[in-house]
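Worked example

This section walks through a single chain of length 349. The input is the sequence exactly as stored; nothing has been trimmed or padded.
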Amino acid sequence: MRPPTDRLADALHRALLPLLESELPLLESDMTSLVLPGEADLSEVTASGSALRRFLHGLPGVDQVGVEKRAATLATRSIKRASKVQALELAIGMVDLTTLEGADTPGRVRSLCAKARIPAPGYPDVPSVAAVCVYPDMVATAVDALSGTGIHVASVATAFPSGRAHLDIKLADTRNAVADGADEIDMVIDRGAFLAGRYGQVLDEIVAVKNACGDAHLKVILETGELATYDNVRRASWLALAGGADFIKTSTGKVSPASTLPVTLVMLEAVRDHAALTGEIRGVKSAGGIRTTKDAIRYLVLVNEVAGAAWLHPDRFRFGASSLLNDLLMQWHKQATGRYWTSNRVTID
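Given that input, the structure is written out below as tokens.
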């Protein structure tokens, strides 16, 4: 077993370059960072409710037709056969292997952790996954099962998936998960407050949860399926980044539509432009509805083309998934050995 490495990302990027260069170039306007409005200093942007609103509503509008066309164009690209094993290993190493069911048991969580550690027994070249994501009451079980592996333990918190609870309950939820050993927290924003234009309230909650995380990383779930417009996705992305999110995440997986390529494109633009503005690198997690290797490859191409090769790394891009890993493993075996695994060779999640 070996952890994901920069070598995989570098190799995949080198493999992608001939493909991307052989395609028709994107329009120049599609490849340039957006021009940010008003204050360039985010500390000034968040200093008052009026400044925050002015900034968020001053962000350039998203061209719905343009973003959907670009995402659809990128989705037609494929990776050459010689590069697929590297791409599959990179995708496996980006998975947050997730179980968020009311019927979760300690035994199920331990089984999931065993799979996270060694996804393909007998094949040491297959990397471990990035993280295991569980409910807060299952964190201690996951921490024990993953001790010494380097695999992160992530926990949803803040009244997941609705986000409808008093702030003190959300903070207690977060602190309890961290105290039990979670080193990543996936919080949900109050979409009702956001859609009502109470941006300051949403920002204050993100900042408070970030403080409650201590040394744990914070992923902020936007639940993009409830935000209605790409403009709102862009605003929510910048709001979460301004609040200190280490990752911005598409979805809880409990609302449809969940992750889509156009939504992820808008979020990747946000972290790219935030990095250009502040020098701070943040990540994106796409979660919900990503089930096949073909889907995963499309997202990797999108990451490479929109944010750049620097984001082809588990520290900067993740898949929130359960069934995706099985398909990646079956495709990896086909590419590596010439034979498909049957479905009974991978565990049932």
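What to look for: Residues 1-5, 17-32 have pLDDT under 50 and may be disordered.
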